[in-house]
Specification:
Blueprint lengths: L19 E9 L2 E12 L4 E9 L4 E11 L5 E12 L2 E10 L4 E6 L5 E4 L4 E2 L3 H11 L5 E7 L2 E17 L2 E10 L7 E8 L5 E9 L2 E12 L35
Parallel strand pairs: 9-10
Antiparallel strand pairs: 1-2, 1-15, 2-3, 3-4, 4-5, 5-6, 6-7, 7-8, 10-11, 11-12, 12-13, 13-14, 14-15
Length: 259
């Protein structure tokens, strides 16, 4: 593993995954309209639950949840993924169930009946990929390419590691690494996120352009397990100059449709 300056309480330890909770502000086109969260908790010694939310009050709300296991080999294996997203009078629901013994992925949405797909090796969901990417970044693995499950089956997603950038955050000025998910040239969406090596590659900012509307999540607080007070700027370790999480996915919040 790469040796880098890292807060020990946030390390992805060999014996397990370090649990954490992070808060974010949510802005739309430069205006703060709500908040978001990301949290990882343990259900038992090998089973974890990763949850993210983005809430803009009556305008929109989205939450994702993934339950997964960490195998003795260290590999991460999703068991169940859910997405709920609402915008005014519209609602979207996605449910993914991973049957690894029979190698079957079962999907269901608010508009589609159950469908099944053949599970490919090392298939991840849109939240577990965030943790897997943190591990890969910490060990300088390339390429950042993953089999990702969604409501339409399994596709290969590739992420591009960009340059280091210093961002001013509520935790202080942080050295970050820019990560992008390339979209087709005609895609109405683009997503960029910045992860902090000194915070074990936790995302400190996520920017999504959705049909010309800019959504931005910025970190406002970070806590480790059983910590009652947020990490302050003085507790953040010095910036690392060496080059895994939405998801790093920011839950999609569709652009309002004009009346």
């Amino acid at each position: 593993m790469l040796i880098f300056v890292c807060c020990p309480c946030l390390a992805l330890a060999d014996s397990g995954l370090q649990l954490f909770s992070a808060d974010y502000t949510l802005s739309v086109d430069g205006q703060v309209v709500g908040h978001g969260t990301r949290s990882l908790r343990a259900l038992d010694d090998h089973t974890y639950q990763f949850t993210t939310t983005a809430d803009a009050g009556m305008l929109a709300h989205a939450d994702e949840q993934s339950t997964f296991v960490r195998l003795p080999t260290g590999a991460l294996q999703p068991l169940h993924y859910q997405l709920n997203r609402s915008m005014l009078f519209s609602h979207r629901h996605t449910d993914l169930a991973f049957n690894w013994p029979e190698k079957i992925l079962t999907t269901q949405t608010e508009r589609d009946p159950q469908r099944t797909f053949r599970l490919m090796p090392d298939t991840l969901d849109k939240l577990v990929v965030e943790i897997r990417m943190r591990q890969d970044l910490a060990q300088n693995r390339t390429p950042l390419e993953y089999n990702l499950a969604d409501a339409d089956g399994i596709r290969t997603y590739r992420y591009v590691r960009g340059a280091h950038e210093t961002l001013k955050t509520a935790l202080g000025a942080l050295d970050t690494l820019r990560i992008e998910h390339p979209e087709p040239k005609d895609s109405p969406r683009s997503t960029v996120f910045w992860v902090a090596p000194s915070l074990d590659y936790i995302p400190v900012q996520v920017t999504q352009n959705e049909h010309g509307t800019i959504f931005i999540l910025k970190i406002s607080a970070l806590r480790k397990t059983n910590m009652t007070q947020p990490i302050s700027a003085s507790q953040v370790p010095p910036n690392s100059q060496e080059p895994s999480l939405d998801n790093l996915h920011l839950p999609d919040i569709p652009k309002p449709t004009p009346p």
